């Protein structure tokens, strides 16, 4: 049986209550919106790129503890990384949440992001953890101005 | 009230409301979820079903399945008699004057869409107005937006106060010569407010404006009398009032329905068809194209039988007690705020908890076996009005108990523990 502690890990509660990088970037290189209209979560991810380097990244919006914590930990994890490294992390994170092996031979090390492993046992909440990552992915690849994980 | 052609009702008789005996009729209420007894507090989304309804649906397929209004053989006649028998039951249940005024549809959503497509498209012209309220479910907003956009008409919205009560003076001021229809909910699904629809109908009728009432949330809780309300249309969903999913009712005054073009074309709704011209069947068949949800109608009949056997004053008293008790228990939780504090409410309690999103509340109480809804409840404008992204909502039916209110309150307290 899934336990609440698997979902609401201390690091997730901490980042939900005190989200890092919760602000807009005045003149972002790119931004994208993650919108889950059925549950009401809406997150905007802002990127300031210097070449291929993510010089600054932030997010704004309203959502549940899981989506806020995910936005906070995602932005903390990809700041200072190259866009390719950030995409590797996106794939590794997605693979962890969906229980798929992923495509990378050596998946990117997740570090603190591993706190979200327990979300898999709560299928209704996977979309919350994924939302900011999909917005990041959309911003990095310029694939869409708005994405949804519903 | 059972038609002779229907299977005899097995609905028990409750001289007073014996909730434990009622619960025994609902097999799903005995489930365990996440290792705990299920506490089902989401009846405003869909109610649970008594064994009598489940059996009636199964027994229709096992013993009476044939298409209706078609063949001359005995089985088809039996199916037709059962189907039409329930139409009579619904007529009496809603207090309608004539069974021809009862149209079977998929649910309240389809009932409203039927009126929007048929009545709305035929009647609305550029510059006309449709009046709805600030607390409508999306199903009583979007169909009107679609038809208004197509016809160049405008949507006007009756405002509400911070308790979630409609402002009747503002409503009266909205009505004018361009108003072609008022569509308002009898009971709000996200706030629980009971609107004074009889008074609202009278105000509209004084100006010759017809009124549609969305009764999806009212019919499960209130004794509805469409002739007393004098509304022109009334929409009901079967699954919210212990009936099967996929069946609902549109009540329409005969003279209104007579003047409306068909909604869908197909079999059963015609008088004669040639490639040059089709003439339509009389009411209500004109609005029931294709093979209907016969099993759903039979199940709805069993639900109405079950309901008719309950002492309704006792049901209302029990639900009022649950509402009062839940309001008291939840209000006592630090940081909890109830959204929707109208003087007249059904047993629906929406709430927010300071610093915690409704989805986190929903997941955490689910671990205690407590099933509540979290989200915008298909009423995004209501959420915007109260400045919240979402609420948690506990909704109670006559089969719920004070013990379940206690379980909810205890589960919400654990939310506080998780978030420290």
Distance between the termini of chain B: 56 Å
**How much β-strand is present in the residues of chain A?**
15-25%
What kind of sheet is the major sheet of chain B? 7 strands, mixed
Output the structural class of chain B. Answer: alpha/beta
Mean pLDDT of chain B, to the nearest integer, reads 94
- Judged by helices, strands and strand pairing, the structural class of chain A is alpha+beta
Q: Helix count of chain A?
A: 5
Broad CATH class of the largest domain in chain B: Alpha Beta
Shape of chain B: globular
For this structure, the quaternary state is heterodimer
Total separate domains of chain B:
2
Q: Order the strands across the largest sheet of chain A as they lie in space.
A: 3-2-1-4
How many structurally independent domains of chain A? 1
The percent of residues in helical segments of chain B reads 25-40%
Q: Strands, helices and their partners?
A:
The complex is a heterodimer of chains A (150) and B (420).
Chain A: H1 4-7, H2 10-17, E1 30-36, E2 41-50, E3 53-62, H3 65-78, H4 83-98, H5 126-141, E4 146-147
Parallel strand pairs in A: 1-4
Antiparallel strand pairs in A: 1-2, 2-3
Helix pairs in contact in A: 2-3, 3-5, 4-5
Chain B: H1 19-24, E1 32-33, E2 36-37, E3 39-40, H2 51-63, H3 74-94, E4 102-105, H4 108-123, E5 129-133, H5 142-151, E6 154-158, H6 168-174, E7 179-185, H7 197-205, E8 211-214, H8 226-229, E9 233-237, E10 248-252, H9 254-258, E11 270-273, E12 278-280, H10 294-308, H11 312-331, E13 336-339, E14 348-353, H12 358-366, E15 370-371, E16 373-375, H13 380-386, E17 391-395, H14 402-418
Parallel strand pairs in B: 3-15, 5-6, 5-7, 7-8, 8-9
Antiparallel strand pairs in B: 1-2, 4-10, 9-10, 11-12, 13-14, 14-17, 16-17
């Amino acid at each position: 049986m899934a336990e609440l502690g698997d979902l609401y890990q201390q690091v997730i509660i901490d980042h939900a209550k005190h989200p890092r990088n919760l602000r807009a970037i005045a003149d972002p290189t790119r931004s994208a919106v993650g919108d889950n209209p059925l549950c009401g979560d809406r997150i905007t991810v802002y990127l300031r790129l210097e070449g291929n380097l993510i010089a600054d990244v932030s997010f704004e919006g309203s959502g549940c503890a899981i989506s806020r914590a995910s936005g906070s930990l995602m932005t903390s994890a990809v700041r200072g990384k190259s866009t390719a490294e950030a995409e590797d992390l996106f794939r590794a994170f997605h693979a962890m949440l969906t229980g798929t092996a992923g495509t990378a031979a050596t998946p990117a090390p997740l570090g603190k992001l591993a706190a979200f492993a327990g979300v898999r046992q709560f299928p209704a909440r996977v979309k919350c953890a994924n939302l900011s990552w999909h917005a990041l992915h959309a911003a990095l690849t310029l694939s869409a101005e708005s994405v949804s994980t519903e | 009230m059972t038609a002779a052609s229907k299977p005899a009702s097995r609905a028990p008789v409750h001289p007073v409301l014996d909730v434990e005996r009622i619960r025994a009729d609902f097999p799903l209420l005995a489930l365990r979820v996440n290792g705990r007894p299920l506490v089902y507090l989401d009846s405003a989304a869909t109610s649970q079903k008594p064994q009598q309804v489940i059996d009636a649906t199964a027994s229709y397929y096992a013993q009476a399945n044939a298409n209706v209004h078609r063949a001359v053989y005995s089985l088809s006649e039996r199916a037709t008699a059962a189907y039409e028998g329930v139409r009579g039951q619904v007529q009496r249940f809603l207090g309608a004057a004539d069974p021809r005024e009862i149209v079977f549809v998929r649910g309240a959503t389809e009932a409203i869409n039927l009126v929007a497509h048929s009545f709305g498209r035929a009647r609305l012209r550029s510059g006309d107005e449709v009046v709805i309220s600030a607390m409508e479910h999306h199903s009583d907003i979007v169909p009107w937006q679609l038809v208004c956009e197509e016809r160049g008409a405008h949507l006007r919205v009756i405002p509400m106060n911070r308790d979630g009560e409609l402002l009747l003076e503002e409503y009266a001021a909205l009505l004018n010569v361009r108003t072609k229809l008022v569509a308002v909910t009898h009971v709000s699904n996200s706030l629980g407010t009971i609107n004074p629809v009889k008074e609202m109908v009278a105000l509209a009728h004084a100006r010759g404006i017809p009124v549609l009432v969305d009764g999806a949330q009212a019919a499960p809780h209130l004794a509805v009398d469409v002739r007393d309300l004098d509304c022109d249309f009334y929409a009901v969903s079967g699954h919210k009032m212990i009936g099967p999913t996929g069946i609902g009712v549109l009540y329409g005054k005969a003279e209104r329905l007579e003047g409306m073009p068909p909604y869908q074309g197909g079999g059963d709704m015609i008088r004669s068809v040639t490639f040059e011209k089709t003439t339509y069947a009389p009411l209500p068949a004109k609005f029931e194209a294709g093979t209907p949800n016969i099993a759903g109608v039979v199940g709805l009949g069993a639900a109405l039988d079950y309901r008719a056997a309950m002492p309704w004053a006792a049901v209302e008293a029990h639900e009022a007690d649950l509402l009062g008790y839940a309001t008291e228990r939840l209000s006592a939780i630090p940081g909890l705020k109830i959204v929707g504090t109208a003087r007249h409410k059904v047993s629906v309690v929406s709430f927010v908890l300071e610093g915690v999103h409704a989805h986190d509340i929903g997941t955490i109480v689910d671990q205690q076996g407590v099933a509540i809804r979290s989200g915008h409840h298909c009423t995004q404008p209501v959420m915007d009005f109260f400045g919240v992204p979402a609420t948690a909502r506990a909704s109670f039916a006559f089969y719920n108990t004070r013990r379940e209110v206690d379980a909810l309150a205890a589960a919400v307290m654990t939310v506080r523990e998780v978030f420290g």
